[in-house]
Amino acid sequence: MSRYVVIYVIVLGWIVTAQARELEVGSQRAVTSLKEALKIAQDGDILCVDPGTYTPDTVLIIDKSIKLYAQGEVHIKAAEGQGIFEIRADSVSIVGFHLSDVGRSYIKDLSAIWVDYSKHFEISHNKILNCFFGVFCTKSSNGIIRHNVVKSNAEEEHSSANAIHLWYCKKIRIENNLAQQHRDGIYLEFVDSSVIRYNVSTQNLRYGLHFMFSHNNEYAYNVFKTNGSGVAVMFSRHITMHKNHFLNNWGDAAYGLLIKEIYDATLSDNLFYKNTTGVFAEGSSRVAMKDNVFDSNGWAIKMRGNSAKNEISYNSFVGNSFDIATEAKKEENLYHHNYWDDYSGYDLDRDGVGDVPHRPVNLFSYLVSRVDESILLLRSSFVQVLNMAEKVTPALTPVSLVDEQPLMRSPH
Amino acid sequence: MLKVFKYSFLDLMRNRWTLGYFLFFAFSTFGLLYLSGDSSKVVISTMNIIILLVPLVSLIYGQMYLYQVRDYVEILLAQPISRQAIFGGYYLALASALSISLLLGLCIPILIVQPEGFVANGWLSLLAISAILTFVFIGIACNLVLRFDNRLKGFGVGLFVWLFLAIIYDGLILVVMLLFENYPLENASLILTLLNPIDAGRVLLIFQLDYSALMGFTGAVFAKFFGTLVGSVVLTFGFGMWLFIPLMQLMRKAKRKDF
Hints:
- Chain A is mainly beta.
- Chain A has four helices and 37 strands.
- In chain A, helix 2 links the parallel strand 1 and strand 2.
- By secondary structure, chain B is mainly α.
- Chain B has one domain.
- Chain B is globular.
- In chain B, 41% of the residues are buried.
């Protein structure tokens, strides 16, 4: 009996693969235009596109399960006021294309590739240059977006769009992409159970990564560099962020990482380097910040008073102008086993943990949060004297914000 | 004036204290560079030392030297040399001797350890600021010596001037800021800061180094101010006043004083 099943499966497999035709598109081929090729293609076909420049007169709608491969440099320029590809079927792949010149629109979300109600799609190795939206996914799932380069030359927030934009999606993998000079590098809204890894997001006008109402996602090994306001994550639960680099986000309202209304998240092994504010936490609870390095930031962590039950442990604070800033009188968060470069205690029993508790909020950071202009007194001798006095007998800084077990050496 | 300058300058350069001043800065900069290895961080630590020590040493050392040569000055006054030439010469000799030993003390270690970090990271501003501070406080020292014949009183006032400008003044600024925290204070606090040469030097350097903390809203306003022409003109003017007024006062006093 089982022998028949095996034979049946083999025959069925042969039929299916035999049906997958290979269509070739190019100026020297039988089919010269992409639009025509998409019309005659059937489910399961593979479209191989010859090198050259293609200028379709309308948006290319893919409503069959086909795979598109570029055989060399295939440039596709968008028609005026139109996007380039619209994927409306499952199991579609678009691999290796150079897509460009999708114009901006204030009414429609024009994009180089729009994925709509699709499952198991793959968008990889494309170069998407100078487009309004790069990759735009709506109500899709189980897709892969990887090794794409999405670059634009956005100048103003209101007239630009996002490089990779996901809305109501599930189980998407976004890996090894470069998102540059768009409004947001990667934007996710209502996206669950997805993995965002090894991406580089840089020089975007607003956020390198921006997500809201997106739960159970993992963000790892990404680099967010020189974006207008860093990275913003809001209104999400069960987020894992680890081994990301948040670099050089300077400016009036710039953060390495802004977390707002985030619950039960893990933030570990990240590097925050030269940001105006490393982490800005507002209304976030049960966030575990562990093994992060805060180096040369203005403020390493700004913790608003409405954040509670967060655990900040085993981090290194090195060379920041201020380590912790908070306006809360009573501290609800737990700080322990961090390394503070301005810790002045001692370790008599040599177990690596300082014997004297460390208070990371100094008087000056309190003063600066009260009167902005007092930043002019940074590193003045008087302020150092004040800090010393406050350290001995805390009067203004929160007494309960204290690291009882500060590390003597940086664990990193 | 050049003759007075030449002899007192050579005398000062041979002085053990000048050598000590040079060695102190050379060793501390060497030590800091050796320990941290990052010339941009060393600039901040060195700045902390400079802002406290350069005014103090310039004041005290200048006063000590001038009180010491006072008898000799009286002999010089009996000669056909103008008073301006004598005091101008001493002022220049003291200021340049101290700045040279200070600048050498800062430059030699960085040129040996990290020559590529010399132009970057605000080292040049640090050098300029330390030289300016030396000139300013030597000027004040000369004034104090001419004003107070009693050495103890002179030193006392000198120490108070240093304490006031280096520490108390910042406290007063802070009090003003807290009293008027409901008013826009950007310009007022900037002006107050620039009125004090030590603060002006510190702020100028900080804006080149600790940029990330200062890029908040107010920081952006300040950074913008220092980046513009107006900012540099105001700064130059502020330092210029601090160099010029003590010198004018010195010349006036020197002309009138009855020895």
